[in-house]
Structure formats: C-alpha cells, structure tokens
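Here is one chain, start to finish.
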Amino acid sequence: MFNLFRGRRVRPRKFSYEPRFYDPTKDDRLKRRMRAARPRVRPKSNQPAFIAVGLGLLLALYLYLHIDSIVERVAAFSSFFFGG
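Its structure:
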C-alpha cells in the first residue's frame, strides 16, 4: 500500500570535471616540482632502543653485584615501619 505513493527515488548527479585548457608539459613540470618539494623522511635509527637496553643491562649488573647490601637496607627500612 505504501509503495504506491513513493514513486521513483531521485539520485544526485555525479561530479564530472572537464578542463578547458590542458597543457601536458605544464602538468609534468608541476608533478616534478611537487615531488621535489616533498620533505625527505630519514629512516629512524635504533639508537634510543640500544641505549635503553644498555642501561637496563647495567642496572641488572649493579643489582646482581650489590644484592646483599640492597637486601640489608630493605630489611632495615621495613623494620622501621613494622617494628623489629
């Protein structure tokens, strides 16, 4: 019943651009200039990650060599709060 009153659906017209003046040499020059004006992106280095890994290894070595003094300090610090 409701389909009788709808009618045909109107669709929007598609956009089509036809240039009046086209110069292929000018277009090529513009493309080359745009390609040259694009900023060069340097590949990222792994230096920050390498430094972080090195510092992590140094920290692990320090903890391994001084674990006994660290445990003593933590025990003394905890006895201050919890009594001992």
